[in-house]
Amino acid sequence: MSDERKRPSAGADSDSDSAADRNGDAAADPVANTPGQGRTPEPERIEPAAPEAFGLVQVWWGDGKGKTTATLGMGMRAAGHGYRVHMLQFMKGGASSVDAVRGEYNAIAALPGISYENLGHYGWHGMADGSDEEDHEAQAQAGLERARELLGAAREADLETPFPLDGPADEGVHMLILDEVLYAADRGLLTEADVLELIEEKPADLELVLSGSHSEPSYLEDRADLITNVRKEKHPIDAGQRARRGTEF
């Protein structure tokens, strides 16, 4: 092998030196590249802002508890940065063990920047709980139309600018959560084509979050940027535990 082939290029020397410099800086100050440079974050006043990197499609499905909880937590985080968030719930009527007033609704009402609406009612489709199956379908269809309206409003708005924290969702939001929309499609109250159409209608800068369904929504595999399977390992409902205030509602 010739010396020319053994000798690293000048560019390689430069790259190595840069990497060494970065490693040296990190060794000297191990928190230099961490958020807040190692300082404990302090809460700040929430002011209207616009996200710099929104625009993905998220899917949360599975037979485990926590899909709505996770999306609400993410919505709260976005609202804490001053972004406008709205959650549209397709099927969240629940059962007789669930109170008419939900803890999350009270929290949302007290938090600027995030709002909700619920098109569900008592009962769940196909559960023989005394609720009307045709009514379930009508509610799901109403949710579909409302989702289209919200997407249309987002397309008309400038998503690169802040929105008033208490402004109506009909004037645009940065994150739209469609809670239980996948369950509605799984139950045949909506079609897979309906869900795909909602994704097609999404403006580029809107973060669209879809949740629900115990069955894998494989039709979204090539259309979603994030897919999370919330899997049940153990659930107290299997031992007869009913829904509890503060954890399930």
Automatic annotation (TrEMBL):
Molecular function in Gene Ontology: ATP binding; corrinoid adenosyltransferase activity
Pfam assignment, any one: CobA_CobO_BtuR
UniProt KW Transferase keyword: yes
Keywords: Transferase
GO BP, one annotated term: cobalamin biosynthetic process
InterPro entries: CblAdoTrfase_CobA (IPR003724), P-loop_NTPase (IPR027417)
Keyword Transmembrane helix recorded: no
Segments of this protein annotated with the region Disordered: 1-45
Protein name, UniProt field: Cob(I)alamin adenosyltransferase
